[in-house]
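SAMPLE LOG
Freezer: B-3
Tube label: C17
Construct: single chain, 217 aa
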Amino acid sequence: MSEFIMKRKDNYWWEVTLVKLGKPFIIFLTHTSVTPNMITLINLIIMLPLICLMAWEKSFFALALMVQIYMFLDIVDGNLARNKHMQSELGKKLDVISDTLFYTVGYFFIGLGVEAPIGVVLMAILVQHFYGMIATYYIVPKIRKLEVFKHTRLKKFFIDRDILFGMDASLETLITSVLLLTSIRKYIYIVCPVLWMLDLIYRLYELNWVNRYNVKG
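STRUCTURE (predicted):
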């Protein structure tokens, strides 16, 4: 492999950190028979059940570590696919299945483990999925209709440094792992949904106000 290819040019802060940490491992894997789908299946078949088990057993240190390993492997599989030129429809579907189960079943079990109210846990999970639906079916299609997408000064400051500003799945896992090591671990289900909603409001403001006159044709 002549040059390391990142999955995306711009990444969120914790995602960038994990990519940098994983780069030597990813480069090593490019010279092996390991495929991206194998990494995804490790997450789906091994890591997710372990996360649920650690949550059920209330082994919070192990759980915090497992959550980060899951996120690390999730980033490895995407970047490995790029660097081995092995992107596939099957890989995309497996990734969606794995992540959907992690952020629903996995986070439900984590909620049980930290003894957060079930209603709060379910609401937090729904908020993240709501964010994903709005981003996928409204924000992204509308951005594609714009001649040039303008960012706020705050976001541009970070983009100029190849970092995306805002809430994302990697930051959610970081917050989860950090709070799992504290006595306020149940606040995962307050902090994360609030940050998802603030990020959604910010993105909608950026799209519909900052770019209100910026439409193709």
